[in-house]
Every structure is written in C-alpha cells, then in structure tokens.
Amino acid sequence: MAGRLALSWVNKHQALVPDGDGGYEWIERDDPRVTEVRLLQQTGHMGEVSGTAEDNLLIQGDSYDALQALSRTPEYAKRYRGKVKLVYIDPPFNTGQAFEHYDDALEHSVWLGMMRERLLLIRDLLASDGSVWVHLDDAEMAYCRVLMDEIFGRGNFLASVVWKRRNDPRNSAVHMSADHDYILVFAKRLEDLVIKQLPRTEAMDKAYVNPDNDPRGPWRRTDVSARNYYSKGMYPVTTPSGRVISGPMKGRYWSISKEKLDELDADGRIYWGAKGDSLPYLKRYLSEVQGGRVPSSVWHPEEVGFVRNGKEEVRRLVGNVFATPKPETMIQRIIQMTTEPGDIVLDCFAGSGTTAAVAHKMGRKWVGVELSPENVENFTRARLEKVVAGKDPGGITEQIAWSGGGGFQELRVGSSLYERVGHRVVLADWAKGDDFDQAVAAQLGFVHQPEGPFVGVKGRVRLAVVDGIADEVVVASIVSYLNEDERVTVVAKGAAPGTEQALRDLSKGSRLLKAPRDLIRRGKVVR
Ligand SMILES: C[S@@+](CC[C@H](N)C(=O)[O-])C[C@H]1O[C@@H](n2cnc3c(N)ncnc32)[C@H](O)[C@@H]1O
Fold first, then answer.
1. What is the pLDDT of residue 101?
2. Rounded to 5 degrees, what are φ and ψ at 285?
3. Domains, the chain, ranges and CATH?
C-alpha cells in the first residue's frame, strides 16, 4: 500500500520451504509445497488421550506445515483456528542457509521470510483475546518488531520485555557484554487482551506490620492528604493526645472529608503515630489488599530464572545438554499472566519442550512443534513423558505440587502429496487408499468421514475419491448414494471422456476434479 511504512527484504514476495538440510529454499507462493495442507499422522501417545484434536499435541515437523494443518484441516481448524490463547516462540536466529559466502542481507531475508509466514499463520490461530510472545536477542529484535507491526498492527503492540539473563557480565566481550534477551509481545486485539497481575511477593507483604496489635491484622500506613484540590479537604483535626493540627502539610488537602475521617477513626482505621500525636494516616490492611503486582517489562533472573537454570532443568531430566532451553519459571510467568487452566498454549519452535512442560503442569492445553526428529526423540518427548509420569522433580514442579497425569498425542507432519518430475508435479507414491482419501479431504477442506462410497463431507457436499480412472458408470454409482439435497465432489486420478458432463447431468452442482492438477490449483494461496 502506497505510503505505508514497511520493511523490505530480498525475495519478500516469495515463500520459503525447508531444504531438508537445515536451511531454506525460496519458491513461488503458489507452489504446491506452499499451498498444500499436510496431514498430521499419529505416531504414538503417552498417558490419557482421547485420540481427537482436543488432546495435547506434540508434532514433529516444520512449523509452517504444522500451523497450516492446524488452521486448514477442518477437524483441527474447529479446535484451533481463532482459539489459541497464548503463543510463545523462541525461534533460532541461525536459519542454516548454506550460502557459499556469507551474505548478511540474504541471511536476514531468509530469517524474516521464515518468520513472516509462520507469524501470519499464528495470527489466524490466535483467539481475539490471545497474545504472541517472541523471544529474541539483538540479532533480529528490531527487524522482528517492524515485521510484527506489519502483521499484527502497531496498535496491538504490548511490550518488549527485557529478560536479564545473567548477573555476571562476560569479561571476554570485545565491547560490551550482552546480558539480556527480548520478548516482543503483541496482542491479536489489544482491547480484548487481559494481562493478569503477578502474585504478591513475601517482600511486598513484609511492608505490613502490626505495632498496635490491631485485631484486623498487619497493616501499612498511607497518607490521607494529597496535592489535588478537594473542596472538603481543609479542616483542623485534633489528635488523640489533644493536639490541634490546623490542616494537612502546606500545599496539600485532606483526601477525605471530616465526616469520613471521623467515621474511619471511630472504626479504628486511623493511625495517629505511636504517641497518638502525629498527623493522621489511613491503615491499609493486608487482609483487605486486592490483587497482586502489576507486571513490569524488565525481568530479573532472581525472579524468573537464569540461563543456567533452563539448562540444568533439561540436563537433570533427560541426561543430555540442550543448547538453548529457557527456565521454567520464565514460561510460568507468561502463562500465568495470559491464560486460565484449560486454555490453549502453542509453541512451534518447541526445542526441549519447556513451554509444553510448563503448560502441562499448569493445567493448560498445549501444542508443541519441533522440526528436528532427534530433538523430539532426545529432548521434547523424553521430557514430556517424564512430566506426564510425574517423574520430573525439577522446574516449577515443587512450587505447584505437580505429581503427574494427563497425556499427549504424538504426531508427525506427513510427507508431501506431490513430487516433482522435471517441471511436472505428480502424485507421490504413497497417494493411495485411505491415505490418499485423507489427503484429498484436507486439500479441499472436507471433514474426513468415510461412509459408503464417500470419504468426506462439507455441509451438503460429499466427497468421493476414485483411486484410478473415473467413468460414467463409476460416477453414476456414486451419485446413486446421494440424498436428494446433496451434491458430490468426485476426485479421480484420471477421467474417461464425457465423465464430467455425465456427472453434471446426473447431479446438478456436482463436479469432477483431477488429481493432482485440480488439487494444486485449488490449494488456496494463503497470502
Ligand atoms: C531456540 S530453540 C527453542 C528452545 C525452547 N524454547 C526451549 O526452552 O527448549 C529453537 C528450536 O526450534 C527448532 N526449529 C528450527 N526451525 C524450525 C522450524 N522451521 N519448525 C519447527 N521447529 C524449528 C530447532 O530445532 C530448535 O529446537
């Protein structure tokens, strides 16, 4: 849009797909690898699960494919699209692009392209009162802020949290020791977002004392005068010791009327100093204090954890060292501020699974996506299995008395339905039988539901998949199963001449599609 402030980068108009080698490859936006909806295949489960989209989900695969599947496959979309309350991601800075000569502009462009596609899908999945938290360091923070302004709207920016990661600066630093990370926070709709206050600390409660053995318990004195003009705020008071004070300190007014002061005094809620001789103060009782602490944008490691805490938690639990785990207490704070038990929390760069582990212990529903099968095997799954089994004594376990329970489904992003042969796109070898039916249903937005000759349903339209060549006899047989008000979409790998017309004559509004050509064409270009 002309005149709009925007960040530009190399190949911004293109899409990226992982190249299978830890890097990414630029391709056109309407390439089937971008528009395709991958299947999420169940590979196992741990603990109690229902086998539905309602379970906690640990997905191995690329975050783009997983998010696309969650937002476009009807069974998952119903549960996740517009329903996710919190997204926390801690994406890698290194996008692994193996350029022959390091090129900063390209490296940044790959990162920005990779993030943009995922943030757009995250926006679709977020609930209107949801928020997204992106953990970054100085390498990309400023760029990501502008990117997120573009995607979520500047007006939905909430904070850039600074997490002080360590208290001992690195003496080996050439110029300055970088001791903090950032977490950029955006709301889906800032006006709908509620950020809960943090629990009170012991230090805060210590400010309340009870020198006069007040039966209402510990209290803290607060001023009953203020600088603002108050029409009933100027009158003399007599202290219990008999001293007459002509009014509040110079330039101030009592903040309550004389009647109110007398009423509170009669109720024992006014403090006149140890000798009953001072200016009056209002007693604020700890038992009557509502709420906690307003969260601040600067987080100290003593409160939310040090880098080493995250590392220790993972090492003790699974016996391996993970490079970049975050401390559980830090994730706990984010989850506590933004969600209620039962809300959905998503992390599509799951790593060692800190977000999922903490969400699980706190009774939230979760989805974790991790690209690397080795990481899933050695860290994410290993950790979450212990959490479910009640065998994770670390992190926030003791504090919240977690003793195990619940479960999760393990899923894998299925392989692409398509293969390239030169410039042609053909169906992959696995595109047969029930797998093919499911994949076709997912591409066209049908709920996969086998019944008679049909394999899917979308309102009054049924889906039939012919694993071969369709002809007049085949479509006539399919149509004979339709109810009067129903139509059918027939997908076939090929069709005899005249079949399309025959189908339309038999059932007005029904249609014949050829795979893969028409599936690719219909794969909605997301942006
Ligand atoms: C910085 S780590 C996240 C650490 C995590 N917050 C924790 O506490 O353990 C980033 C993770 O994202 C994974 N990753 C990188 N690219 C990905 C992608 N395209 N889709 C899903 N995961 C990806 C990496 O394998 C790595 O485990």
1. 61
2. -85, 140
3. 15-196+298-413 (3.40.50.150), 202-288 (no CATH), 418-523 (3.40.1350)
Paired strand residues for 454: 451
The per-residue pLDDT for range 243-272, each reduced to its tens digit, is: 999 999 999 999 999 999 999 999 999 999
Of ligand 1's listed atoms, the one at least distance from the Cα of 375 is: 27
Q: How far apart are CA 116 and CA 134, in angstroms?
A: 12
Q: Rounded to the nearest whole angstrom, what is the distance from the C-alpha of residue 309 to the centroid of ligand 1?
A: 18
Residue bearing tokens 């195990």: 404
298-299 and 157-164 beta bridge pairing: parallel
In this structure, the number of other CB atoms found within 10 A of the CB of residue 371 comes to 22
Answer whether 321's CB lies under 8 Å from 352's CB.
Answer: no
Q: Poorest-confidence range of 19-33, 105-119, 353-367?
A: 19-33
110 Cα to the center of ligand 1, angstroms: 16
Ligand 1 pocket test: which of 330, 371, 380 has the largest number of ligand atoms within 8 Å of its C-beta? 371
The contacts of residue 277 (CB under 8 Å, 6+ apart) are 239, 240, 241, 243
Nearest Cα residue to 365 out of 118, 187, 127: 127
| Whole-angstrom distance, CA of residue 235 vs CA of residue 247 | 5
